[in-house]
Amino acid sequence: MPQGSGRAVIVTSTLVFVLTLVARIHGVSQHFLLLGDQIRDWAIAVRPFSELPLVGPPTHFGGYTIGPAFYWILWILRVLFGPWFDNLPHAGGIGQAALQSAADAVLLVAIWRRTGSWWIALATVVIVATAAFDVSLAALVWNPPMGAALAKLAMAAVLADWHRRSGVHVAVMAVITWSAVHAYTGTIFVVLGVFIAMLVDPFVRGDRRLSVRNAAVIALVVVLLQVPLMVFQLAKPREAAMGAVTDSVSRVLAGERAPQILKSLNGYLEAVQVIEFMPGRVPGLGWLLLICAGMVAVRYVKDPALLSVTVLPQAAAVAGYSLFLGDLDAYYYLSLMPATVLTFVLAVTAIPSSRFTRATAIGVLVVALAFVPIRLRNAATMSRMPEYRILVDASRKVRRFGQPIQQIRTEFALPPSSNAEFLFEILGGTIDRRAPWVCVIRANGEVTFSQRE
Predict the structure, then answer these.
(1) Please, which residues bridge with residue 440 across strands?
(2) What percent of the chain has pLDDT over 70?
(3) pLDDT bucket at 130, cuts 50 / 70 / 90
(4) Angle (CA) 153 158 372, round 5°
(5) What average pLDDT does this structure show over 324-342?
(6) N or C, where is the chain less crowded by C-beta within 10 Å?
(7) pLDDT confidence band for 244 (50 / 70 / 90)
(8) Could you give the CA distance from residue 321 to residue 406 in angstroms, rounded to a whole number?
(9) What is each CA distance from 15 to 1, 19, 191, 451, in whole angstroms?
(10) Residue 62 contacts by C-beta under 8 Å, 6 or more apart in sequence?
(11) For a pLDDT cut of 90, what percent of the chain falls above it?
């Protein structure tokens, strides 16, 4: 158990949840980023559960994620949070941010339990949860942040030794872990580490029976969670999931293209720079991460479960993405950041002296806290759509007009994939292209109506 009283654990984890949630959702009802992906996914989430797709969201390079867990969870969030916000899409953003903050609180307790250090746990979570890139995306209706949150929960479950408990605990872990892949395929490297930890940890402790049980439970859960995809593929056999990924991998394995190790390594290092250090940069980051990984591997060689969810996912990501021939974006690596940050914190506190470990961890925490205001200010400049508040208020006015509307236009520019009519329909309004009324939303929020023959 974590050092200190149960009350201290509850108070600290609650504060982490509340404070990180406030940082993530501050002003979301004013600037929610309403782009095409958010419109598509929230329109699905407001349907009855029976009408949800059997697969996940389409990807920007073709195909779709391999299961519907993202839509299942988003539907639950809509049911829980939607009624408080007229089912407007920023309710889903608040729900996803709450899921992220809950994962942070659980990770805090898990690291505290694993290391016995409140300071290491808090330093890690502060660095992870206040990254500008992470904060800016957390309150979106978007599958990569949800996948990262689920992967974070799975990582925390390993650190809390859930896999050593009952078969029910293992099944719950497996559901959460594989659902992360459903939500976003890029979580596969963290998922790989979690599953390996669940198998290797009991094996090296001499409990092969437990390792076999965990393997059987994992396999059963994965098969069951893939049933929706199987049904979908039977109905639409020509629509291959993740076609671009499987095509890239097959071309590399067939020898048509060489693995792009350098591109993959540079992609990972750039992602760490963007997610954790933006707007600054850290010279020699690659060597720093390599040294940290080596120190953690040596220090915790007798803890294969910890290494499986820290060092292993990073190495697996570099190897795995070398088989992907497309461009690499920073958000592909979002789910890896807890592993990266924990590796760094464990490395700088690796000297086996409790006094040194505590002093160093306190120093890391103080530095992390000092950068929080800068990171949050930077987050406030990213992934924002200030016109959202105008659209919400104007849509309410048009809804009160009480008539079907032929078209809603704006006098100001919206992002190309956004839609000025979506919020009006979510609020219960009717768009009818045969209706006589056209409305225009002005930049100051005023709405004008005109009637056309």
Answers:
(1) 409, 448
(2) 93
(3) very high
(4) 50
(5) 93
(6) C
(7) low
(8) 47
(9) 19, 6, 28, 54
(10) 243, 244
(11) 82
Roughly how many angstroms between the first and final C-alpha of the chain, as a whole number? Answer: 73
Q: What is the pLDDT of residue 4?
A: 53
Residues 6+ apart with CB under 8 A from 144: 137, 183, 184, 186, 331, 332, 334, 335
> Residue written as tokens 């915790």?
300
Structure tokens belonging to residue 411: 């006098």
The one-letter amino acid at 380: A
DSSP label of 57: P
C-alpha 323/C-alpha 193 separation (Å) is 18
Side-chain half-sphere CA neighbours of 380 within 13 A = 11
Burial class (CB in 10 A: 0-12, 13-18, 19+), 354: exposed
CA distance 287 to 292: 8
Tokens of 309: 């969810």
Beta-bridge mates of residue 64: 58
What tokens were used for 140? 């979106």
Q: Report which residue type is found at 37.
A: D
Angle 237-238-239 from CA coordinates, rounded to 5°: 95
- State residue 2's pLDDT score: 52
Backbone angles phi, psi at 349, to 5 degrees: -115, 20
Task: Give the closest residue to 25 by CA, choosing from 95, 104, 105.
Answer: 95
- Tell me if 94 sits within 8 A of 30, measured CB to CB: no
Average pLDDT score over residue span 40-60: 93
Strand-pair category, 437-441 with 405-410 = parallel
- The verdict on whether omega for the bond into residue 145 sits within 30 degrees of 0, i.e. cis, is no
